[in-house]
Amino acid sequence: MQDMEHPQRQSVPVNESCGRCNQPLPRAQPAVRALGQLFHISCFTCQQCQQQLQGGQFYSLEGTPYCEGCYTETLEKCNTCGQPITDRMLRATGKAYHPQCFTCVVCACPLEGTSFIMDQRNQPHCVSDYHKQYAPRCSVCSEPITPEPGREETVRVVALDKNFHMKCYKCEDCGKPLSIEADDNGCFPLDGHVLCRKCHTARVQT
Predict the structure, then answer these.
(1) pTM value?
(2) Minimal CA–CA distance to 177: which of 192, 162, 157, 191?
(3) How far is CA 125 from CA 21, 122, 198, in A?
(4) Which pairs count as long-range contacts for 150-159, CB under 8 Å and 24+ apart, including other chains?
(5) Alpha-carbon distance 106 to 79, whole Å?
(6) Please, what is the end-to-end C-alpha distance for the chain in angstroms?
(7) Which residues pair with 190 in a beta bridge?
(8) pLDDT in tens, 106-148
(9) Is it the case that residue 7 has pLDDT exceeding 80?
């Protein structure tokens, strides 16, 4: 951004030419010095809308002058609020965001610098809210099966097309914890019930 409010008459060598039109710059006419070059006042205009920039502020984009409005139009826009990103940009999943706009869609906590998960609609979630919303639920306690705080993984037991926490995978009759291995301490299902071997035998006999 440069202030050009007071154009000065430059001492222009005879062979000096305008940085825009390449025509000579007469000594008798004022010139604008900007971007390391001299310009006729009428030639120093916005690349996009041709507005004269002498006397105001302008932005240089790859060495080319733009007025503020046209420069703003060249900026990437935030995927959340749609406004141009004029300061720091955060890029996630190939899209640009203001850092303060990249938040969990459930609890609105900021996600910059933390782990996050995108749902099927490509909306960002903090890990906790994603698991609460999308994790499978235990058929015993109905709570989501999610990693313990500070951990990234958990074990889910699937039996009889039902999901279980490890701590909830017990015999329905006696409450004995069941092994996930196919051994004598594992599950012996009967009529859709999760049972240990002893309780399975007892039900069969009755």
Answers:
(1) 0.51
(2) 157
(3) 53, 9, 45
(4) 155/180, 159/187, 159/189, 159/194
(5) 17
(6) 89
(7) 193
(8) 999 999 988 899 888 889 999 888 888 888 999 999 888 888 7
(9) no
